[in-house]
Amino acid sequence: MKINFTSKVFVASIIASTIILTGCNDKATEAKVIETKAVAKQAVKDMPPKVEVKKEEKSVTYTKYDSVVYDVFQDSAKIGPQDNKQMIMVFGTNTDPYSDRLKADIQSSPELQKQIKNDFSSYYLKAHENLRHKLYHEGEYMDVDTKTMISIYGIEATPTLIFTDTNGKAVILVPGYMPTKQFITTLDFMKSGKWKGKDRKNGEVYEVLKAFYIANGIDVKSKAQ
User: Fold this and answer.
1) 54-76 burial, b for 16+ CB within 10 Å, e for fewer?
2) Which of 94, 122, 145, 203 is the most buried (most CB within 10 A)?
């Protein structure tokens, strides 16, 4: 057991006090000092050990860009194409830097905010939180949780962006971070309706989207736009 500094001062003060009071030139004094040392040592020995209290380390997940989720996106308790609008679903987490980067882009782009908020039914889902939702599917709302939605749409990375038609059917699914200019151009593509009649599963939609990107100055080989 380690003796702390306070304990040593306590011992020294007892010894010093005894010497001052009795003098130090006779045998009685020497015996008294020895006795006092023994008492002091025993007193220190009997003192409770010093306990080091460690602060509890809490695992906190948060992001300074989370406010944009509440300001721009709708409540994800009920997910569906409201007012006959196309729908956007973004799956992200609070521990993924690319999810944060996407939210930072939205926060710094008034144009992107306006389109997401006003032109689409838009929802942000935190993939790390398994919440309950009512999801519009084939003309009606069904009860699902976040994990079920991740399974339904095959989400394997965050962020993942899903763009749907006015019936909630997925038209484009983009895994990974989407830069601001590309995001805005994708919204324009959805509003253009050029995807209608094209099959997403066989890649037709993505070929049309690629041509739309090129026509609007998006370098499809570059990740930074």
Assistant:
1) eeeeeeeeebebeebbeebbbeb
2) 122
